[in-house]
Amino acid sequence: MHGLTFILAAVLLILGVTGLLDTTSAAEIQTRASPGLFFGGSILIASLYAFRERRHGMAAASFLTFIAFLTSVPPILKPIYRGTYDWLLIEHRQPTIIVLASALYLGIAFAAWKRARRSLAITRLRED
């Protein structure tokens, strides 16, 4: 799970850097590069902290991923509801990739947490 967190951070940082390369104004930096750079960097820091305290670092990374998911949904929903969504536009593509990567990570994290809780409960029952 820890390795997956580093992969997610790398994907978000790469999205942020590619957003920086395609910008021509300061306003575009906010919409194209900031989400990827901010969340990718903060998830990377939380992942590095997880080497020291695994439980808290991974919880922070999961929380930041959830916030990245929530903040990237509105830029996708608005064009979808209007019928103007276009994958080729970077303003639509980057939030979509962030939402998909975040949802995949959160789904895998939840499944791993559920498996760990189940195995812990089974071992406790066997001990009694």
List keywords for this structure.
single chain, 128 residues, mainly alpha, 5 helices, 0% strand
Put the structure in a nutshell.
With about 130 residues, the chain is an all-alpha fold.
Structure in words:
This protein has about 130 residues and is mostly helical. The chain has one domain (about 1-125). Helix content is about 85%, strand content about 0%. It has 5 helices and no strands. It has helices at about 1-20, 25-30, 35-50, 55-80, 90-125. The radius of gyration is 17 Å and the shape is elongated. The model has no long low-confidence stretch (mean pLDDT about 90).
Beta fraction:
under 5%
Low-pLDDT regions: none
Distance between the termini: 30 Å
Percentage of residues assigned to helices = over 70%
Rg over C-alpha atoms, rounded to the nearest angstrom: 17 Å
Structural class: mainly alpha
User: Multimeric state of these chains?
Assistant: single chain
Largest sheet: none
Number of alpha- plus pi-helical segments: 5
What shape does the CA trace take? elongated
Order of helices and strands: HHHHH
- Rounded mean pLDDT is 90
Number of domains: 1
Number of strands: 0
